[in-house]
Amino acid sequence: MRFILPFLGKTKESYLDHGIRDYAERLRRYVPVDIKVLKEPGKNEPDAVLMAREADLLLSQAAAASLLVALDPAGREQTSEDMAAALESWESRGLHTICFLIGGHLGLDPRVRQQANALWSLSRLTFTHEMSRFILIEQLYRACSIKAGHKYHR
User: Which of 2, 5, 39, 152 has the fewest CB atoms within 10 Å, i.e. is most exposed?
Assistant: First the structure.
């Protein structure tokens, strides 16, 4: 199994960037992880245009994926154990490349949500898209460690 994590723009908060890099290295003990930092479209465009351009960028990165998971507040909340079970199920079904998509500051364009195979929510709480990156990668690490039988999550 392999994970693709396309991010819209650089992570500007240094503490989050450090945490993302740290957990990416930890996660790579279990699976290959490809973090792709995409150049953000111009922010001076109307919201609908900006979201559509972001959708184009994100979906272009997902083209090679076996499965597309979009992170959205309207998605299904997961426990760490749920995530581990999902990863195990996907792996047993032969799905090799999983792409996780997080929108920009406006969220995800409806087209991304429609094309996703799964729609997950990280929480009912609101996080910045940069915080969502960190939370996702830490939870993927936690799910992989659970799947491997480690007691990290307790």
Answer: 39
